[in-house]
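Reading a protein record of the kind used here takes only a little practice. Think of the row as the fold of the chain written in a discrete alphabet. With that in mind, consider the following protein and its fold in token form:
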Amino acid sequence: MNSPPRPGGRPSRQQAAALDARLLDGARAAFGRKGIANTSLEEIATSLGISKHTLYRRHASKQALLDAVVERDMHAFREALLAASVDGDTGDPLEALRRVAHRYVEIGSRREYAAFYLSVCAEAALSANLRHRLALWSERALEPLSKAIGAAQEAGLLRAESPAEITGLLIDLLEGVNNRLRLAPVEEDDGEVLTLLFDRRWAAFLAVTATDGARA
């Protein structure tokens, strides 16, 4: 149950946090549904049943609101990858990398995630400033994946090539899985299709990047 408003109508910290989360959720859904360029702050405010003043007081522009949504998503994505890197840790750097890569697909293949992410990419194609910001966001979000690749290289399990190149190769393979799942005609709740597609890409990744020691 929410705590009552403070005297004078000011919301409590808990209420303010709940409103902020609701604003970001609503903006995320609107951007994913209509695209960033075709979505106005007024439309978002109306869809949430709040005044434009309430929205503008927290996010002065559409760019500021987009930044807030992406920052929250980026942080959540990064934390999820970090958790995967240590979840059930066996001390095998290559297995840790596999867990992180699998979590990448679990998150990235979700349609609601994809709708927003692809709308940002579409806008970035026409905006050098947004492309730059997207590159910075991606670098931070993918840091756990890059570190897992570095650890596997240090253990002699992946070839000593550019970590950035190996990271890019793995992401390209994983995005292939995501695209297949996003465009599937039906939802796959049991995860069998995801696992099958992922395992094939993971095997292809190892075929190109794994050392002889990793295959032994």
Q: What stands out?
A: Residues 67-211 form a domain with the Tetracycline Repressor; domain 2 fold (CATH 1.10.357.10). The chain has eleven helices and no strands.
